[in-house]
Amino acid sequence: MTSVQDTYTQTLRSGQDAVVKAFGQWTDIAKGAWAATPGVGASEVDPQQVIDQVFDFAEQMLALQREFAKSLAAKAASATQAAREQSESMLGAARKRAADAAEATTGATSTEQ
Q1: Are 68 and 60 in contact (CB under 8 A)?
Q2: Same structural domain for residues 35 and 60?
Q3: Alpha-carbon torsion 41, 43, 47, 52, what sign?
Q4: Helix (H, G, I), strand (E, B) or coil at 70
Q5: Helix or strand or coil: residue 63?
Q6: Which of 50, 72, 99, 106 is 20 to 30 A (C-alpha) from 32?
Q7: Range of the domain at 68
Q8: Residues 68 and 104 occupy one common structural domain
Q9: How many CA atoms lie within 13 A of 63 on its CB side?
Q10: How far is the C-alpha of 38 from the C-alpha of 51, rounded, in Å?
Q11: What is the pTM of this model?
């Protein structure tokens, strides 16, 4: 029995193989078109170098996104803590006022009797 991960891996590999095959066909067509165009020469590009550059760039962008997410999470946690402390302070003040009002009301009714 195949696991979900095996099925996903096989599907991904099949998709990648199809893309490589399609890209190979496109490359062959493009080479023919460039060769047929007068005065246009194909420059040599090292695909391994291009791949390394693309993935190095992607790694740098991912690292920047990680730092951004961490920074944003830290600021959100700080804001949450400040809001919590402010709410607790306001709640404490409201409770004190309610207690003072209750005491004043109790004191006023005691003197009237």
Answers
A1: no
A2: no
A3: negative
A4: helix
A5: helix
A6: 50
A7: 44-113
A8: yes
A9: 6
A10: 29
A11: 0.43
Alpha carbon dihedral 62, 64, 65, 66, in 10-degree steps, equals 90
Kindly give the residue spans of alpha helices, DSSP state H, lying in the chain. 4-36, 47-112
Co-location of 59 and 108 in the same domain: yes
Interval 19-70: pLDDT, tens:
999 989 988 888 877 776 666 555 677 889 999 999 999 999 999 999 999 9
Look at the alpha carbons of 12, 16, 17, 21 in this order and tell me if their dihedral is positive or negative. Answer: positive
21 in the same domain as 67: no
98 has a pLDDT exceeding 70: yes
Total domains present in the chain? 2
Q: What is the C-alpha R_g of the chain?
A: 35
φ/ψ of residue 70, rounded to 5: -65, -45
Residue-level length of the chain: 113
28/69 same-domain check: no
